[in-house]
Amino acid sequence: MKVCVVGTGYVGLTTGVSLAFLGHEVTCVDLDQNKVDMLRAGKCPIYEPGMEDLLAEAAPNLSFTTSYDEGVPGADVVFVAVQTPSAEDGSPDLRFLRSAAESVARSLHHDFTVVVNKSTVPIGSGNWVDAILRESFAQRDDRPAGVEFAVASNPEFLREGNAIADTLFPDRIVIGSDNPRSLEVLNRLYRPIINQTFTPPTFLPRPEDATAVPLVSTDLASAELIKYAANAFLALKISYVNEIGQLAAKVGADITEVARGMGLDQRIGSRFLQPGVGWGGSCFGKDTKALVATASEYNLEMPIVKAAREVNQRQRAIAVERLQNELRILKGRKIGLLGLAFKPNTDDLRDSPALDIANLLLARGARVRLHDPVAAERFRREQPELAPYLSEDLDGVFDDCDAVVLVTEWAQYLELDWSKFVGLMRNPLVLDGRHALDAERMARLGYKYVAIAG
Ligand SMILES: NC(=O)C1=CN([C@@H]2O[C@H](COP(=O)(O)OP(=O)(O)OC[C@H]3O[C@@H](n4cnc5c(N)ncnc54)[C@H](O)[C@@H]3O)[C@@H](O)[C@H]2O)C=CC1
Ligand SMILES: O=C(O)[C@H]1O[C@H](OP(=O)(O)OP(=O)(O)OC[C@H]2O[C@@H](n3ccc(=O)[nH]c3=O)[C@H](O)[C@@H]2O)[C@H](O)[C@@H](O)[C@@H]1O
């Protein structure tokens, strides 16, 4: 089938490349000329494991452009995957979506096109996009006859760092549409994934437990709400284990054992129960805020979601409190942060706990040293005020240091030969912000090991 994807960020790029890999003819449109140039050269503008390999495998079916006229006319499906950042009041800023919808309408030239919203948008946005498309299309002097289109919602559930596997082997596909023809088109588009009939990419074998993928077909509003409800649930699951973690620290319980004991109950499940400095990234913060904002439009409070947000913010401050308890005075102390990305396997720094922790430490007069095996380059560009504190190598972090904090559990840190660094530190204190290091081993190596909870 012929597909156009608008926006080549984490979501649009993964969607476009994956669909091209499955044999669809895909054109990706982005206004960012640099991104388009890089992608045309086979280079991936984001750090996403496997993406450059998949780009190479999908290349015969894939093209990149800044022109809607090269992608939209003739497409059976147009995906819109532009950013929807938080506006001042917490509601999503829909400017990018509006502009993309207007541009799509100006280029539509096909008997039936499904315009699919993949961005995370407030409930009701599907109808809003539909109205923009119709209005913009009606304003065209050159509008062709016989053009029909319908809007569908197809929320995205991929995780950064795991984007390709989450797309090719998803837990479910959700399609919201009030138009049966759209559903039929999208069902056809996704059939290889739904039935798992494709041959996986050479670098990504099919998981042994992969089965046919459930298709959840709903009305537009339900699909839009599923996305927010799922993200908020994952966020509050993490906040819950972190709240329990703080109690565990007080009563002398081991939160990792507590989480394991809880997670083995299949009704709870062990995933997203890893205690630590809390969640970051571009979506949990934005989407929980948007859910609260949407509810307030209907005079509805969302106390559980609000509490999850507060607990998450508190975790970042708790990391600093733990250091203060151990070192008593933070002023003048040298503190190294290991990991700047909001989680491993991505260079994404949006709402990363490391940013708040670094700023809180600086505000208390500490001298910070920052390190990340992958995100440092991007950090330098996006965080110019904190960039002078970056350290190129780990010696620069540990040397004469009063404490190091594991903020992001990159494999490089977990597999580090920690014995090499203990002698460099002035005070060999390690704060494990992810409960990811082996406490006994660290103690054997001569570190004073402290975890965020306990
Ligand atoms: N990042 C993630 O892991 C996930 C994101 N989402 C949602 O998907 C949406 C997109 O997120 P990301 O891919 O992270 O965003 P992103 O910021 O990485 O990428 C958005 C892309 O859209 C392009 N763009 C903006 N306006 C455009 C326009 N009018 N025409 C053409 N291109 C345009 C930008 O240049 C950029 O390349 C958001 O609503 C987000 O909440 C959903 C699931 C996962
Ligand atoms: O809407 C989105 O953008 C996406 O948001 C999350 O994906 P992502 O933000 O990429 O990353 P996650 O793996 O969910 O991690 C989010 C944050 O939670 C933290 N986390 C995760 C799991 C856990 O047990 N504990 C924990 O603290 C991570 O360190 C990270 O900071 C969701 O998992 C995706 O399903 C969703 O599509």
- The ordered H/E elements are EHEHHEEHEHEHEHEHHHHEHEHHEHEHE
User: Helix coverage percent of residues?
Assistant: 40-55%
**Bound chemical compounds:** 1,4-dihydronicotinamide adenine dinucleotide, uridine-5'-diphosphate-glucuronic acid
Instruction: Give the mean pLDDT.
Output: 97
How big is the Rg? 24 Å
The outline comes out as: elongated
Annotation field: number of helices: 16
Spans of at least 5 consecutive residues with low confidence: none
What is the terminal separation in angstroms?
54 Å
Record the strand order, biggest sheet: 3-2-1-4-5-6-7-8
Report the sheet-strand fraction. Answer: 5-15%
> What composes the largest sheet?
8 strands, mixed
| DSSP strand count | 13
Supply the helix-strand structural class: alpha/beta
Binding site for substrate: 157-160, 227, 272-276, 280, 343
Binding site for NAD(+): 30, 35, 84, 120, 160, 286, 350
Protein name: UDP-glucose 6-dehydrogenase
Catalytic activity: UDP-alpha-D-glucose + 2 NAD(+) + H2O = UDP-alpha-D-glucuronate + 2 NADH + 3 H(+)
What does this structure look like?
The active site is at residue 283. GO terms for molecular function: NAD binding; UDP-glucose 6-dehydrogenase activity. NAD(+) binds at residues 30, 35, 84, 120, 160, 286, 350. The protein contains 16 helices and 13 strands. It has helices at residues 10-21, 33-40, 51-58, 95-107, 125-138, 163-168, 180-194, 220-251, 255-263, 284-297, 303-327, 353-363, 376-382, 394-398, 411-414, 439-444; strands spanning 2-6, 25-29, 62-65, 77-80, 112-117, 148-153, 173-177, 215-218, 334-338, 367-371, 403-406, 429-432, 448-451. It has an eight-stranded mixed β-sheet with strand order 3-2-1-4-5-6-7-8, with helices on both faces. A five-stranded parallel β-sheet has the order 10-9-11-12-13. Helix 4 (95-107) links the parallel strand 4 (77-80) and strand 5. Helix 1 packs across helix 3 (51-58), helix 4 crosses helix 5 and helix 8 crosses helix 10. The mean pLDDT is 97. The structure holds 1,4-dihydronicotinamide adenine dinucleotide and uridine-5'-diphosphate-glucuronic acid.
